[in-house]
Amino acid sequence: HDCFFIELINAAKHLVQIDNNSSRGYNVLGSIYLKTDKLFEAEQILKDGLEKCEDKSILKNNLAKVYSAQGKEEQAMNTLWEALQLDPNNKNAFDWYIAVENEKGGSTQRLEAYKKLAEFPKSWRAKLFIARYHLEQKEFEEAKGIYLEILTIASDYEDAIFTITGDLGNNRKIDYIFELVFPIFKVDKHGIGASFNMIQAC
After folding, report:
1. Which of 122, 127, 136 is nearest to 168 (CA)?
2. What is the DSSP string of 48-105?
3. Across 48-55, average pLDDT
């Protein structure tokens, strides 16, 4: 078991050396250090990555995990928020933040968290859940308006299209699927999951 992780660490160190303009190697090595409880090393390599790489959101999110493992919860939450400021659609950071807010105050707090994240430029993931809320409240025009906003910035993202088609299908808004999604849909880009959603909706 230990030998396996040592091999992974060595491979990740090599990745950092040959791919030092990318955050990938730093994230991989930092995550392995975190998994093996080498928290000081994890913190240092992720901080190194933040100094050297342009793509910082995932690095910040992983650093927040390290701070949490160190028991520094306030610093972890501040760093998590910084990750979301850099990329509000970072799924790992997004899911963690929403889980924390949900634990604080249930569905009401969760909805407010979605709205807070939706204010960031190019934010679309949070808007998916705000649209879902409006669908559940039978506020279909409000949901449609949000979907139009989402599709101006996230029409190429498979998980966005999957969620939209699934939620519209579950709420029997088949006309919205054909109006909003069908004209832009491509199986090779958006995946088989959204295709099944549209077939089931019909």
Report:
1. 136
2. HHHHH-S--HHHHHHHHHHHHHTT-HHHHHHHHHHHHHH-TT-HHHHHHHHHHHHHHH
3. 93
Q: Which residues fall within 8 angstroms of residue 3, CB to CB, at 6 or more apart?
A: none
pLDDT digits (tens, 9 = 90+) for 139-169: 999 999 999 999 999 999 999 999 999 999 9
Give the confidence band of 194 by pLDDT, cuts at 50, 70, 90.
confident
pLDDT of amino acid 20:
64
Whole-angstrom Cα distance, residue 150 to residue 118? Answer: 10
Residue 13 pLDDT: 86
Helices (H) and strands (E) in the chain, counts: 11, 0
Q: Give the CA diameter of the chain.
A: 57
Residue given tokens 């899911």 in the structure block: 95
Token pair, residue 107, equals 């569905």
Q: What share of the chain is helix, strand, coil (3-state, %, to 5)?
A: 80, 0, 20
Is 80 exceeded by the pLDDT of residue 4? no
Q: What's the rounded Cα separation, in Å, for the pair 35 and 110?
A: 29
